[in-house]
Amino acid sequence: MGAAILGRMSIPQLPESRRLAGIATSAELIAAGILRNSIRRLVAQGDLLPLDRGVYARSELAAQLIGDDQGGERLLRLAAAVAVAGPAAVASHQDAAIVHGLALLERPPAGVVAVTRPPRAPGNRIGRAGIHLHLATLRSRDVTVRRGVPVTSVERTVVDLARILPFRAGVVVADSALFSDQTSAAKLRAVVDACERWPGIDRARQVVD
Known about the structure:
This protein is α+β, with helices and mostly antiparallel strands and 209 residues long.
């Protein structure tokens, strides 16, 4: 692996990351041979942008995203939360709806992003402000990648929101997904059937019907 020179100090190059804006956790950087004092120096010289405690983006890529995308800053925070939550975590609920471009009756709080992870999957408990962690089963068909961020599928997103939101708000999301041809009534019913014993599923079934 090549090295970058910082004054008299040589450190390994930043590891490759498939995440949005090259996001990496401090544990991943350390595993790549970049020590904590080197991380601090990379931040100081502007190569790394701290997004949250222990998670960083490549500054140039992050700046480009924020400049090109009106919602780029929230998207970065969301991608950082997914990275912190563990390898099986995905963006979900209102934030997944935003990523998919679905209509919402009310926008989510500005300072909180939603993430879902399977209950037994490895990852932090995330007792930190700004991240609402949901623990729920995620089938492979429930997960996709949009705009560089792992998210729940459109139909899973609709059903998740229909389970927790008021009926009218759930209908707005479902109508948006159907009107934009991103899913079908049959796919929505299949997710409802797969989650038949979950809290709020009766309301979600009414929304889909």
